Amino acid sequence: MKTDRVTICDKPPCTILSSARDTVLHVNMELSNFPPELISRVFTFLSNKEDAIRHHIGYTALYACSLVCHDWRATALPMIWSKLNLQSTSQKIRIHERLSRSLTESRSHAATENHADRANHIVMIDLSADMYALEEHWSEVTAPVFHILRLFSPDQLHTVNLHFPHFYFTPLQWRVDPNASSGLPSTLFPALTRNLKHLSVSCLCSSCTDSDAILQNLPDRLEALHLTGSSDSPWYKSATSLDRILSLSKLRNLHACDLRLTVSHLERGLRSWGPRLQHLRITDRIDPLEDALVRALTAHCPSLQSLGLQVDLGDSEPLQVSNDALVALFGSCASLERLVLRGCSAMSNGLLAVCASQGRGLRVLEIDDPFGRLTGEGVVDLSGWVRLEKFIVEDSVWSGERIDMDEAFVLAVKTKCHALTKCKLRGVVVAEQLQSDDEL
Amino acid sequence: MSDPANITLVTMDGTTFTVPSAYLHRSKLVQDWLRSEGDKQAMEVKHVTPFVLQGVLNFCEIHAEDTSEPLADPADPTKPFEADPRDDAFRGMPDDQLLQFTMAADILQIPELVRLTAQEMASRIDGKSPDQIRAMFNPDDLAEEDVDSDNEMGEVGEEGAISK
């Protein structure tokens, strides 16, 4: 067969085994030939972290693209308007009023003149209740926000991020009346959250009524939930009914911070969340790292990819996690690639030895051992860490005593963990390559 | 019956190229065709010119022995993307050629080439005004009435910027 080597585009030659090539045909390619999905892919590479308001304020690249031609505009508008951030202060009342009016007019034009209905594109919304701290402007500030919310359909939103003020910064009414409410959660839940998949709430329990409105109406389709409590609130106990969280059967990602979850709670939840659960992060005052929890994870959550347990323990006695339970966890959760343990009292060289020999899927291991027990002494089998890329042991012993890692262990890490790009053991840098944390 | 070790591609004007099938293992279109119609003489690649197909085949040859996992979604912004020096020439092509290569990569369903060309298009667009983008890519005109409500939003933005 004839081999014809052809040089094109000033590239290295391409080996064409044979070709019948009479002419080099150039086509006057125009954007009108571009399919919308391809335009969308190009736009995906433009920065799209901004919400609709920031796109307009900053005259972003995506916004510029929306003014180029009909096809680009049709693709760019849903991307520009997909996210709306109403993190409001009194200074933004006029912005929200204009926005509310613009969205309303856009809807009426869409009905009569085949124009884009911008409000209809919004699927992610960031809402701040800081505005409610401004008691004297209460109704004035909230009116346009509620007007915008009323433009949404029940199935429209898939992501909601709610930011409540810390209890100390809430209006006086909230601090003295457990029934006081911003009205925001009761507007959203359940009427506008039927299709909600991602929910984040910070400073839950600043208001008892608001918290209950959320917790009792968590939608069935929720896949990712990030809840941060506000344990300084006197309404904490009355508001934190966790039963609904524990029964969410589609949950894949849970980050629970300061909700006072118990191991008993978590066992119930793990049974409900089951094989769907991929990411679990608990930050609480109760140490969940005990055999019962590890065995529940082993039994119910084989798809777990990341596990983070952070504990504020005080001087409690260390709990015992058996090596057998950990071995079973690594055996059952073969996809576990990120393990972060902070403050857990069960930290020991025995636990580290199990991680090193059995954690074959681990890419990230971060440990904060405030008790200073973990040194690596006696940990010699690192055969499980073939994929380990990031290994951190924080240097944060409560007593202030200087604890050094075992030299033989550090040497073994250096010589045997070939995939490591970032390793810092009690303040000593063992490996550091230029790589962003995002990649890990 | 075509040689299974090689594949013949026919462009929009009838020009044929025969290359090792292994070059095109990342092309979903070609792989689907080989499975369903591999007994035919040649695969037609309509809407692709000889010049562009030659460039695409060049890319495929350069990356034929890459062992990285195929991209499931070429536009997944969470996947880290490091510029490959072997692709520098593709990044340097004129705007009209870049459009054609992006289209061809999409037609042949080669995610790695779609990502390369789409990201290059995005980087050229970034920071440009609508007029500059039009000059680059020659689109249809945009009716003025479409942007009226955007102007109002622009005023909203200006107020926001002032009130910050």
Structure commentary:
Chain A: Residues 33-86 form the F-box domain. Chain A: InterPro entries: F-box-like_dom_sf, F-box_dom, LRR_dom_sf. Chain A: This is F-box domain-containing protein. Chain A: One of its GO terms (cellular component) is SCF ubiquitin ligase complex. The complex is a heterodimer of chains A (440) and B (164). Chain A contains 16 helices and 16 strands. Chain A is an alpha/beta fold and 440 residues long. In chain A, the strands form 2 sheets. Chain A has a 13-stranded mixed beta sheet, with helices on one face. Chain A has a two-stranded antiparallel sheet with strand order 1-2. In chain A, helix 1 (36-44) crosses helix 4 and helix 14 (323-332) packs parallel to helix 15. The model of chain A is unreliable at 1-13, 21-29 and 436-440 (pLDDT under 50). Chain B has a single domain (6-141), classed as Potassium Channel Kv1.1, Chain A, CATH 3.30.710.10. In chain B, 48% of the residues lie in helices and 7% in strands. Chain B has helices spanning 28-37, 50-62, 88-91, 95-107, 111-125, 130-137, 148-163; strands spanning 6-10, 16-20, 43-44. In chain B, strands 2-1-3 form a 3-stranded mixed beta sheet, with helices on one face. Chain B starts with 5 loop residues before the first strand and ends with a helix. At the A-B interface, strand 2, strand 3, helix 1, helix 2 and helix 3 of A face strand 2, helix 2, helix 4, helix 5 and helix 6 of B. Strand 3 (18-20) of chain A pairs antiparallel with strand 2 of chain B.
Offer a concise description of the structure.
With 440 residues, chain A is of the alpha/beta class.
How many DSSP-defined strands of chain A?
16
Number of helices of chain B: 7
Structural class of chain B: mainly alpha
Lateral arrangement of strands in the main beta sheet of chain B: 2-1-3
Stretches of chain B where pLDDT falls below 50 for ≥5 residues? Answer: 158-164
CATH topology title of chain B: Potassium Channel Kv1.1, Chain A
